[in-house]
Amino acid sequence: MNLKHDLRAVARLFQIYGDFWGAEPYGSGHINDTYRVAFNQGGSRVRYIFQRINAGVFKTPAALMENVRRVTAHLGEKSAGQPDRSRRALTLIPTRDHQPFALDERRNYWRAYVFIEEARTYDAVESPGQAFEAAKAFGRFQKLLTDLPGPRLHDTIPDFHHTPRRFAALEKAVQADAVNRARLAAAEIEFALGRRSLCGVLLDARLPERVTHNDTKFNNVMLDDATGEGICVIDLDTVMPGLALYDFGDMVRTATSPAREDERDLSKVALQFPMFEALARGYLESAADFLSPAEKRWLAFSGKLITFEIGLRFLTDFLTGDAYFKVRRENHNLDRCRTQFRLVESIERQEERMQQLVESI
Question: Nearest 5°: CA angle at 109, between 150 and 146?
Fold first, then answer.
């Protein structure tokens, strides 16, 4: 297979021994280049994950990898004594000079993990049972990191979930209308401006800062092939200080509607209550004993806020000329915005029922 990177040369940078067997692209991520790489070690084939970190998106890869090193080490320690310990947290492979990442001859940043066997990710939720397991895994991830020793982790993307600043960016984009698109998004702009009051709710609630994942899509949890258990949270690039409810809210946004994120037929976009119930029950099974009363109070609300926030980001990018999110068709970011705002409307219709469920749990 013709690969765009010399993975045999990359392998020599890490503490991996044996004969290079082969490599292939792996996963469905769109930011980093990810490969599954195999080695012959004592007659057995052993596999690893190699990733080239996209330094164009993650501007401080050294700080990012310091976060990853600390988090994976802590999770590994907390998993000691458990069955399948090596499958329950990512294991970072150090470089030959004992660093968490390597630079190749072209100044590309690389990292390597042990490949987790007999488990896989799914791009879409297939059942409430899967949603339960994913949410339980993310809740456990947060719980295990509540006692991560200091210092505070690096903010690899500052203000990532600062909704008031996302709203301010939208207002600025509407006023500038740099590419003359505001007329095409008049209804969406009106929708957003009418919900300004949502933006500061979680910040004003003075919730405790946690170590959070910040990208809790369903395909960032590996499910065991045999049992279906959510065994390992992956893709730790955005792990940094944040609010626990950001993670739960993004689970609601990405796992409760059957529609694609850029679905044009908005009749397909709706929060499926059984999926929300599975997420809430799974998450609280792991997280209930460390969440504060205020965090529990705003749990149901968080899905609406994060969905609204991502809609703001898509709309802002559309109005400024599609500078951040990759687009594949005309008005792609506007379509994405519309699915988010339609999901917000669906959540609003069911919000009271969602709140009652959380309180009952």
Answer: 20
